[in-house]
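Reopening this ticket.

The earlier resolution said the output was attached, but the attachment link was broken on my side. Pasting everything inline this time so it's all in one place.
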Amino acid sequence: MTERMMQVLKTKVLIIGAGTGGYVAGIRCGQLGLDTVLVDGGDGLGGTCLNVGCIPSKAIIHAAGKFETVAKAAGGGTLGITAAQPAIDLKQTVAWKDGIVRKLNAGVAALLKKAKVKVIKGWAAFEDAKTCVVKTEDGDIRITAEHVILATGSEPVELPFLPFGGDVISSTEALSLSDMPKKLVVVGGGYIGLELGIAFRKLGAEVAIVEMAERILPLYDKALTDPVAKWLETHGVELHLGARAGGFGDGKLSITTRDGEPLQLDADKVLVTVGRKPRTQGWGLENMGVAMAGPFVKIDQRCATSMKNVWAVGDLTGEPMLAHKGSAQGEVVAEIIAGHDRVFDPVTIAAVCFTEPEIVSAGLGPNDVAGRDDVIQSVFPFAAIGRALAIEAGEDGGFVRVIASKADHRLLGIQAVGQHVSELSNSFAQMLEMGAVLEDVAGTIHVHPTLGEAFHEASLRALGHAIHI
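Inline output:
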């Protein structure tokens, strides 16, 4: 297409990427009356999280939990309930998951339309900091903007000796398999690998996990990860810790064990989950003149890059690479562009592993305060919580832990491991964000019977007067 025929757009705000950072920024810009164009070049509206990440993985995890419940009932009964042996048609499960994604896609599209955001589907290539050409099905569009928000997200890290393709898959392909693998080997024992590995084990696959570190979930302290390790052990998941993966061929993955011994693992599928990296290639970042911080785009507390009126949010800007961080940054940037005085300076960004059982961490953990004598740490087990026992959530070693300052009792960190504890994460984050002290939690009447009572009791215990232990 010639330059003369190319469609040209001018806008106040141009957003690149329609994930949880980009689309939220778009909606907020629209609400604030800013002329906004959103370019969706990746996974679709909602980005990785909605299409091939958080949402579909939780749907598959939910289905796996239901399957496991029926399987328990078939294997001799549970809670007096018996059932026939379950079977799964993974195509139908994936179709149900896809229906959820479509519904949420349509919801995001409707919200953007309501906010009067112009959405363009295509891949952008920047010529300079404020100008890009978007290749669409209907031809190229040149867009110039006063403000640019970069929200290109992240992508799975590929191992050079295990390139994606065929039976070597990333989390994206794992969430759309048409048949259940008999033998699944997961390379990488972080939260993505464990979430999916556990789900496939519940669905009946034989699962092995290969992790370079000496334990699973190496970013979390051992007490938090021990209940997950116990679940893996009791459910026959093969763990190879301190091990390195090698090549894959003829249905066998080569690994080197902790002792340096070569080993061949049978595998129908090899799921590689060794991390994610910012999506910095292929859209002209190098032509924008923005400073980098390692592999990430460097930003300040306003999410501003080193180039005037170019902003960046989400996974592109560094750890933690979490959807809710990107959304919060997107709102901040939209409000700054609209003239509000905002900074992105959260006290904490809580993180959840949807493993079995689930893990939550907010604020400082034990490793962060190791050796300090100016903090109080207190743990309360779910085994002493009535609600946990009544929903079979009290027998797996789960607990809530609080870490607070000795001097003024200010909460510094809160962690939990146990079934359904993801739903406590917002309470933890809220207390930290408000600058709560132990007495604030102790003085809040917690509803009985709920799992949240463990947070109350952990705080009471830190003050020296827990009731139920």
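Reporter confirms the inline version is readable. The longest strand covers residues 139-150. The chain has a mean pLDDT of 97.
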